[in-house]
Each structure stands twice: as structure tokens, then as C-alpha cells.
Design goal:
There is one protein chain. By secondary structure, the protein is an alpha+beta fold. It is about 25% helix and about 45% strand. It is built from 3 helices and 11 strands, in the order H-H-E-E-E-E-E-E-H-E-E-E-E-E. Strands 3, 4, 5, 7, 8, 9 and 11 form a 7-stranded antiparallel beta sheet that branches. It is elongated, with a radius of gyration of 33 Å. The mean pLDDT is about 85.
């Protein structure tokens, strides 16, 4: 019985088959490299984000001096004089903070009676890394508004007024020579402000309050 001889096509791979295998290997290598590069880039971005991601700053009302808070019912006018002392703390180790605009709104029982800029040395104040700085805000004047006269009389009798502060920020972060966009956080501070008498004494002590920052 004659031996079966292998056909030429079975013994030696054709050029077409070799080309297909090479193409398959190149495609597979390309996709492996692409996935590897994407993974490395994503990990690098994640590490950079963890390292330099901005952390929310802290605003604390450390003292308040309220020398006038009188409401005249016949002309619906509130006369007020309030001075606030504030500390701002930057907890970031690598980022400085530009405070471009800090606008504070004072509210008595959820009704706004005044607004003022937080006093800073200049616009675009630059706060250093891990820095703490002292600022102030002054609300003084008069405003025609509808308030509950009896409620004000009761608060004045107690000598303590519930005053909230709503703060609007426009700020930037700085990493070395690079500035990281603009941010517009909002802050809310709930205060119990004692009235200060003419001789400078307060009916009650003021308790510092840390503002809640919606970053």
C-alpha cells in the first residue's frame, strides 16, 4: 500500500497564512500596549489628583461686636452696627489660595438686612500654604424692612440676636506658577451675637462659630 505523501500546502505554511498570523500578533501587541499606556496615564492622573486636589478652606467667626440693633416700627427702619472678626485657614500643603472676591450677607431671622465685602488688604489676596489670616467685616447703617417688632424686643431683652452670615466667594488656587481655574464656594455661618453696651460690656460671651463651606 502506497504511503500517503503530505500535500505541499500542508507541509509548508503559505505566505497568506504567515501574513495573517503576523497581522494577528501585531494587532494583539498593539492593543496590549494601548491598554497598558491608558492604565499608566489613568494612574498618573489619579495620583496627581490625590496630591494636588484642592481641600476646602476654613472660615471661622472668632468675635462679634454688635453695638446697635434697633427697629423703629413707625417707619419700619432697622438701625444696626455690627463688626465681625474672621480667621481664614488654608489646609492645603501644596496649594495657595487667591481670594478674589469675598462678599458677606448678614441676615436676622432669615431676612437679609445688610451686605458688605470682607475686608482684605487687596483684591486677589494670596494666602500661603497652610496659612491662617485675620480679616474683618463691617455692617453699619439703616434699612427699611418689615420685621416682627415683638420678636426684636424679645431678643433685645435677652441681649442676644440670632444673626446668620451667607458668604459668596470667588477664588483661585495656585500651584507654584500655575493657577487652577476659578471656584465659587458658598459659606453659611450661624451666630448668636450678644449686644454690646455703651461701656463696652457684653450681655453674654460670644462663642466662635465655624462656617459650613459648600465647596
Amino acid at each position: 500500500m502506497a504511503d500517503t505523501q503530505p500535500r505541499p500546502n500542508d507541509a509548508v505554511p503559505s505566505k497568506e497564512r504567515l501574513g495573517t498570523r503576523c497581522c494577528h500578533c501585531l494587532c494583539q501587541t498593539f492593543w496590549i500596549l494601548l491598554v497598558l499606556i491608558i492604565t499608566i496615564v489613568m494612574l498618573a492622573i489619579l495620583v496627581l489628583y490625590i496630591i494636588i486636589t484642592p481641600r476646602s478652606f476654613r472660615f471661622t467667626l472668632i468675635d462679634a461686636n454688635l453695638t446697635q440693633f434697633d427697629y423703629t416700627a413707625n417707619n419700619s427702619t432697622l438701625y444696626y452696627d455690627l463688626v465681625l472678626n474672621i480667621t481664614a485657614h488654608n489646609p492645603n500643603k501644596r496649594l495657595k489660595i487667591y481670594y478674589d472676591v469675598v462678599r458677606a450677607h448678614a441676615l436676622y431671622r432669615r431676612v437679609e438686612f445688610s451686605a458688605a465685602d470682607v475686608n482684605m488688604p487687596w483684591n486677589g489676596y494670596l494666602q500661603d500654604k497652610k496659612g491662617t489670616n485675620f480679616f474683618g467685616a463691617v455692617f453699619s447703617g439703616q434699612r427699611v424692612m418689615g420685621l416682627n417688632r415683638d420678636q426684636i424686643a424679645e431678643d433685645k431683652k435677652d441681649g442676644v440676636f440670632p444673626i446668620d452670615l451667607k458668604i459668596h466667594f470667588t477664588m483661585r488656587f495656585r500651584l507654584d506658577d500655575f493657577q487652577l481655574g476659578h471656584y465659587y464656594p458658598r459659606g453659611t455661618c450661624e451666630l448668636k451675637v450678644p449686644l454690646t453696651s455703651n461701656n463696652g460690656n457684653k450681655v453674654a460671651s460670644f462663642h466662635p462659630a465655624m462656617c459650613e463651606i459648600d465647596f
